[in-house]
């Protein structure tokens, strides 16, 4: 039979990295944000206009559907309870 080491003791210094200052962490954060933004594939002007039109049309259609259902249900409630 093989023996398994079940001890979970680790040195405490390995668990906690050295604490950095607030400004150091903030500058690291902004450097990482800039690095990620450089990886982004930005849309062209035509793609941006196309996507914007699609979103506006979709939102308008959904708003019309909700408004129509609201009108129908209002008339139905007034017919039943009014």
Helix % is: over 70%
Global shape: elongated
Q: What distance lies between the first and last C-alpha atoms, to the nearest angstrom?
A: 83 Å
Question: Main β-sheet: number of strands, strand sense, barrel status?
Answer: none
How do the SSEs run, as a string of H and E?
HHH
Overall pLDDT level = 88
What structural class do helix, strand and pairing data support?
Answer: mainly alpha
**Helix count, per DSSP?**
3
Which parts are unreliable, with pLDDT below 50 for 5 consecutive residues or more? Answer: none
The portion of residues forming beta strands comes to under 5%
Number of strands: 0
User: Over all CA atoms, what is the radius of gyration?
Assistant: 30 Å
Structure write-up:
The chain is mostly helical and 82 residues long. The chain has a domain at 43-82. The chain has three helices and no strands. The protein has helices at 12-15, 22-39, 45-81. It starts with 11 loop residues before the first helix and ends with a helix. 0% of the residues are buried. The model has no long low-confidence stretch (mean pLDDT 88).
Brief rundown of the structure:
The chain is mainly α. It is built from 3 helices and no strands.
Give the key terms:
mainly alpha, 3 helices, 72% helix, 82 residues
Layout of SSEs?
Layout: H1 12-15, H2 22-39, H3 45-81
